[in-house]
Amino acid sequence: MKNIVVITGSPRKNGNSEKMANAFIRGAGRKGHKLTTISAAELDIQGCHACEGCYKTGNPCVYADDFNHIAPVLLEADVIVFATPLYWFTFPEQIKAVIDRFYALLRGEFLFKGTKECMLLVCGADKKEAFAGIVKTYEIMADYLEWNDRGHVIAENASEKGDVDKTGILEEIQRLGEEI
Predict the structure, then answer these.
(1) Domain spans in the chain, listed from the N-terminal domain onward
(2) CB atoms < 10 A from the CB of 127, how many?
């Protein structure tokens, strides 16, 4: 049994990213994995302030926002899944703030580097080329963190709420959840 954390990045409730996350969760749940969902848009998390104060107060970050509440969950995860829309060719601000704060976890005494599997699920835009920036960012991040990159799934032409239902990709994502 793996401890899986799914981080969603969209501020839109019941949108395409959430449907993709739920498909993955259904698949992984069938295998009995422990699942936790973190909705980045519902949290108060600022990006990294580059203050180098990581763990100086006993928390991963000296800034007292919601990141310190989710940090233990991230550190305990065997798998971290990003389910996010594409915003201007990259991660939306909400999920990017969480990712930026991974820096604090790297500076801690707990292993964060080299301990995770990772998968990126993205949706939006009408051409796969539009996803090149977010995919490259994800690949570099996974490589730097020495995570076992499980790849990514792209649902294009899924801008309006519910469009992802028409793509047939939810079944693929559910299978990925079962195989993780």
Answers:
(1) 23-179
(2) 10
